[in-house]
């Protein structure tokens, strides 16, 4: 006979007391609002115009996840899907060198080696939407081969989808990607980061163009949180532009 305990494997007490691991963004104010950083088991979108620092934050997350647990990290590794062919390994090396100097000078950790940190960032170039979805589907194999991967980044998701001409095909691919990502979030409790840009939308009522996030309105429903980047370096949190809150 089935009992409630057999059906319900966890109680609300278990969920309340479950420890939530987080990865620091490298920005103190943003980390405070995120209660210590971006949590594992979530799908986060970084949105902003080109040159506002989205890729740099992705690189910092790839390094912060490697910090020892005693320093707030996860002793983890990362997987980076590059759709724009804009990944700069030299910039990542500069950030890794900065990490090595910071922690070796402070005497906090002898394990922070810049070259090893670069080896822990696994890189995949995706040249087309079909290539991207094939690689995302294969992520289960990547994680099985290297369970230490804690963060997966797609930079940029919107760039890959722009290659698709019809809106219908674009949404079909987007939904297929999110189904795969959600499934892996549930299985592995890792972290997915996608980047997005703004686009111009013609409002028929006002007969004016307005700036909106790419990939359509429904996209905001599919992510757990949005971090908005501005040209002046200010960050915002929120699902849409009207309800977002400034990070100070």
TrEMBL record:
A cellular component term from Gene Ontology for this protein is: Rad51C-XRCC3 complex
Q: Entry's InterPro entries?
A: HR_Repair_Mediator, P-loop_NTPase, Rad51_C, RecA_ATP-bd
Name any Gene Ontology BP term: reciprocal meiotic recombination
* Presence of keyword ATP-binding: yes
Q: Which UniProt keywords apply?
A: ATP-binding, DNA damage, DNA repair, Nucleotide-binding, Nucleus
Name its cellular compartments. Answer: Nucleus
The question of whether Nucleus is a record keyword is answered with yes
Pfam families reported for this sequence? Rad51 (PF08423)
Q: Main localization of the protein?
A: nucleus
* Record domain RecA family profile: where: 19-248
> SUPFAM superfamilies given for it?
P-loop containing nucleoside triphosphate hydrolases
Q: What GO molecular functions are on record for this protein?
A: ATP binding; ATP-dependent DNA damage sensor activity; crossover junction DNA endonuclease activity; four-way junction DNA binding
UniProt protein name? DNA repair protein RAD51 homolog 3
Organism encoding this protein? Drosophila willistoni (Fruit fly)
